[in-house]
Amino acid sequence: MHTVSALRTLDLRRSVPSMQLGEPGPDEATVLRMLASAVRVPDHGKLVPFRFLRIAGDARHALGEFLAGRALQRDPQAPPQAVEKDRQRFSHAPLVIAVVARLQAGHKVPEQEQLLTAGCVCFALLQAAQGLGFGAQWLTAWMAYDPEVARVLGLGEGERIAGFIHIGTPSQDAPERERPDPRALLSDWTP
Length: 191
Prior knowledge:
Elements: H1 2-11, E1 21-22, H2 28-38, E2 50-56, H3 58-74, H4 80-88, E3 95-102, H5 111-131, E4 135-139, H6 147-152, E5 159-170, H7 182-185
Antiparallel strand pairs: 1-5, 2-3, 3-5, 4-5
């Protein structure tokens, strides 16, 4: 019975668009509970190659203002609606958790495996948020890869954004989308 319940949880996972996430967001105890589940990921070498950065309250809007300015620096001809979209990116969900990958170069555990661990944290955090009754969406976009955004967020050497996890209360049910047929993706290797 427990196994069926766990599989059902995986099968019911839906991304809720960040623009459909609003108040209330999780309180401090709930955030910590979500993170306690999110850290239970495969981690070869026990490196803990990730950390969390909370973006909430007015910090969301301040980051949006920075992003709007940075978007214009990157492309002075950017259309006003694109700049406004960047300004509002972090304003919808009451909480955004940036999962920061902390990659150790030259370690016996390849950087790719370290990055995959951080990616697993992103997915586990999505599952934890949904399991506690919230909606969530994992986003990146250009700002996850921009060195100036990394600097403003305080990322250090070897750190990069694995994902911005937007968390809040859904304003509507998340739609199901067509999923791939696993039979079409499975093949057998033979020597």
